Structures are given as C-alpha cells and as structure tokens.
C-alpha cells in the first residue's frame, strides 16, 4: 500500500484486486461517461499561480465546516453497497475518516446500520445521506436511526428521480448482491480472494431499505420517490434537528431556491457522472454558485477529486470542502481499511505540499487569486 505514490496507483491496484464487475460498478458512470470524464479533466485546466518568498513554515490544512473544525477540507461522501468493494465496508471507511479527522457520510444504500457505523468510529463525525423513499414513514424512520446513532448532519441527495443508465453494469449483468453465475465464474477464477471473502462474509444486504436482489436500477426505481419537490425539503427541514445539506445541485437558479429554504449547505455535484450524462462540470460551475449563494450557505464541491492539489484548487475557487467518492473506494478495493487510510494520508500530504508551493500559509489563505482555469 505504501508503494502507491498517488490515488491513480491505488486505482490500478483496485483493478487488479476486485472482480471486473465490482471495479466497474465503482469506476464507471452513466451512458457515454462524459459527465465523469469532464469532471476529472476540469482539474487539468487548473493553473496554479504561486507566490514566492512567503513564510509557509506553518501551512495548516484544517478548516471549519458547519461550525466544526475538521483536519482538512475533505468529506468522504456517501456510496452505496460499500461492503461489496471490500468486506470491511462502511465501518472501515468510518474508522479511517475518524483517524484522519474528516467526516464520513453513510448512504441510504449502505450495507451497515447507522448504529454499527457509530460503534466503529465513536469519535468520528458521521453524517447520514437520505434518499427520500416512497414510504415517507420509512424516510422518517431512517432519520430517527441516524439521530439515535449521533449523526447530526443530513445530506439529502436530490439527483436520483430515476436511476442513471450505468452501461458497464448492464453489460456485466451486475446484480446487487453479485451472483456467481456463468458470466462471473471466469472473474471468480481470476479473483479468488475477493470471492472467498464475499462468500464467507455475512450476506450483503441494504441496512436501511428493503431490496430484493436485483439490478440496482430496478431497486432504485422501485424504492425512490420521483415526485419529491422543494416542498418536501421544507418537510425534512422541520423533521430534522441537525444541519441539512442538499447534494446534487447543478444550476444557479436551483441553488438560489435552496438557499431561500434555509439549507445549511449545498453540494455542487452531478453524482460523479452516474446520473444524467453531459451535465455541467462541478469545478467550473462552482464559482457561479458561490457567487450567487456563498454568503448565505456553505458550498461544497463533489466530483472528479483525485488528489490534494484538486482539493486546493476547489477550495481556491470557493468550495468550503470537497466530497470524494471513488478516490476512497479505490483505496478500499485495493486494501480495505489501510487502503482508505492511504488515500487520506495522500490527500493530506498533497494538500499540505500544494499550499506551501503556492505560497499560502494555510487553507484559509486560498482564494481565487491562487488559480486560473485555462480555456
Ligand atoms: C456513489 N454516489 C452516491 N451518492 C449518494 O448520494 N448516495 C449513494 O448511495 C451513492 N452511491 C455511490 C456509489 C458509488 C460506487 C459511487 C462511485 C458513487 C455518488 C458519490 O457520493 C459522489 O457524488 C461521487 O462519487 C463523486 O464523484 P467522484 O469523487 O467519485 O469523482
């Protein structure tokens, strides 16, 4: 694990360790995958503008998010079915986040109960992500369980009115949980360790929702409520005592409407390109959203972050912090909890180095002056 020089190395290791259909479930996106490719490529447009001869002996990476200090502007975002990537699953991710001093968001589609995540990382800052399901009482029950587990930040994801078309999954015939069928036998032979773990662990199931085994799109469309509107957010606002973030914002007008409802934060995100394809690129959209609502609500960036330098760029362009998805899942697939720890160590070291090389004496010194987006 220590040989992995960056997150791209961990991705390659993950590709070797996990069966192809599991790796592709993480690595893939919707339809032609343009949203994802552009989100990553946008970071290549970043041109840093370093100052010299600044005292950067101290370059603290800590920031304040929703009124609380965290070690660096990184949030481990919600990902469904995390125990499929590695049997250590959500508890391992939560422990790695706790150790690194950053928040972890448990997904509605998680494979570990909120109480078990809290028990695994009692000193961590654990958040809960909600998909509003058709049965509203069930949604409220999830909120109650999250509250009982000490989770005080709710992230409502609003970009899944229907399942995106993940063509890699369709081509693999991926089911949740994966079934050992003729298609997967060859993969099983190539990845015996993963299959051994999978077949000898507790059966994989969603912790908060019912879901008969099947394809993820079918499960999603059966459970999620496509009729949700901003009025429902007001309902959630009144039902939830803690902080409220909305994830999946891609337009300035929506950002303004949500800020008017009084959410505590917005996550500029296209779901890692896994929903609608050919959408705006989060990094490029970010400064516009920050201009429109940044004085009223905290704005987070989500999508395409693969290094600490990416985090620095996003913060310079106005993000309070970045959510990361695939980056930590690559680490998890590559090597369980130590793999996630490696990802977080890399992000921290890369961010600290970037700050110093930029000539800023900490995250708070990052501003639009530090970067330019090349055309
Ligand atoms: C996700 N994402 C996601 N988002 C969410 O709100 N609830 C969920 O259950 C999931 N599940 C999920 C599974 C997997 C395998 C991936 C890769 C992603 C989206 C995730 O939170 C985030 O928006 C993206 O991963 C961000 O893009 P990057 O960091 O992966 O480029």
Automatic annotation (TrEMBL):
Keywords for the protein's UniProt record, in alphabetical order: Flavoprotein, FMN, Oxidoreductase
Family under the similarity heading: Belongs to the FMN-dependent alpha-hydroxy acid dehydrogenase family.
InterPro entries, per the entry: Aldolase_TIM, Alpha-hydoxy_acid_DH_FMN, FMN-dep_DH, FMN_HAD, FMN_hydac_DH_AS
Coiled-coil segments: none
Residue ranges of every copy of the FMN hydroxy acid dehydrogenase domain listed in the record: 1-375
Domain of life: Bacteria
Cofactor: FMN
UniProt keyword Flavoprotein present: yes
Protein name listed in UniProt: Quinone-dependent L-lactate dehydrogenase
